[in-house]
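REQUEST ID: PR-0412
SUBMITTED BY: lab tech R.K.
PRIORITY: routine
TASK: structure prediction, single protein chain
INPUT:
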Amino acid sequence: MSLHVNIFIGAILSSAHAEEPIEYRIAHSSKRIYSHVGSRNLKGILTRHQSFAVFEHFESTASCSEGWAQVHQQGFVCLNGTEETNTPPTGETEFLDFIPPDPLETGYELPADLSLEIDASPFMPSIHARILDGSRGRLWASVEDYEAGNPPNWRLKEDRDYRFVDILETKRGLVLERPNGKITPVEEWFVYPVSQFSGRALDVEPIPNGEFAAWAIDKEGAPIYEEPTEDSDVLAYASFQEALNVYETTSENWYGIRDIFGSHEDGFIMADHLRVWESASRPKAVADDQIWFDVDLSQQTLGMFRGDSPLFLTLISSAREGYKTPTGLFAI
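STATUS: complete
OUTPUT:
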């Protein structure tokens, strides 16, 4: 597996595009930047209430009625929830650039020239990983013990996820650091990609007619197939907690995804790899202009409504095994 994460605040105008912008726009809320028109592959985020430069316009899609704009060399933004402005960006436009590991790389070997530049404490306070198949998950008391060639002091259990607080470079290679300061060689671990998860504001990202909002929940990437069968070719992988629009198919336990990579061809993903949100009916006790929330424990989703209109969607995590989340209608 490739392990390459860069997170930084930079300028999208400095050397991103050779030609001059055709207009300036301002967003009423933060805007996601995608790798191509109609994609769900997150490349970055533009901050709210700040103007940005548009270099080219593209036609609308089912998920973006106002059309798309290219905002830098490899970034495209849906123009829903934005408007034209005469104010150019002042100084550097804030742009959070995120390069996730490539989910199509299925091998676990780390490249010999692997380098990590991680300065992401405000965004990524923890690193999550599990022991690779065939590895031992060995622990040393300190970097000094590890570099001295001393034998490990402990071993962690397999089939569990562990939290680490840092990646350190030592004379013997990269190691992961536990919260208690103990360390373990990174090559013995599968490090999960940084989550791209965020909730979904439906005024900015409406759900196309006949489709459902969903999130991929497979930590190693959910395969998207050419046909609704596991015997068909894998076209791509949906990243962990990546937001998707899906539709029901005639095949049991399968959903479809329209227009993969702008190819005008659909892909198919197993329901077991998704959390799918479905709208709920307004309780009789709720007025038609009241704000209320519906939590679906079976799908682990939450919808925020005003009356009958859904406004915002997100994933939730209810009571863990051995405990119970009470059901019913509750006033806040």
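NOTES: Helices lie at 143-147.
REVIEWED BY: pending
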